[in-house]
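It is worth pausing here to work through a concrete case rather than discussing structure prediction in the abstract. The textbook approach is simple: state the sequence, then state the predicted structure, then interpret. We follow exactly that order.
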Amino acid sequence: MELPSFLIALHAAVLESTVPPALAGTVAIGVRQDGGARWWSGSFDGGVRARLDVERPEGASAWLLLGTRSAEALIEGRAVRPSDVDVGGDLALLDRFLARYGASVRSWQTRGGR
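Step two, the predicted structure:
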């Protein structure tokens, strides 16, 4: 199963950034794929630790799960389908994270998750 392009791009953006993220906590981002999900996780407590292709961390401060089409839409600069997005945890942290790395959930209708 191939890793979603969105997760690869997100991982690179986080690791290549030279500006401190000014975030605290753990963020998990997933993309639904083949009946499951592929995940990226980043911890921002006193530094940046990012991991690609992991299980969703149980203690994630915030998480976002996208459908494949919504992940592709983000890469292409198109709007995502609100019904294709699940979020949970600290939504302010998630919003700051996404704003910092090139996207925002402010305009998304989100639904609490699993």
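Step three, interpretation. The beta strands are 26-33, 36-43, 49-54, 62-66, 85-89, 111-112. The helical segments are 5-16, 68-76, 91-100.
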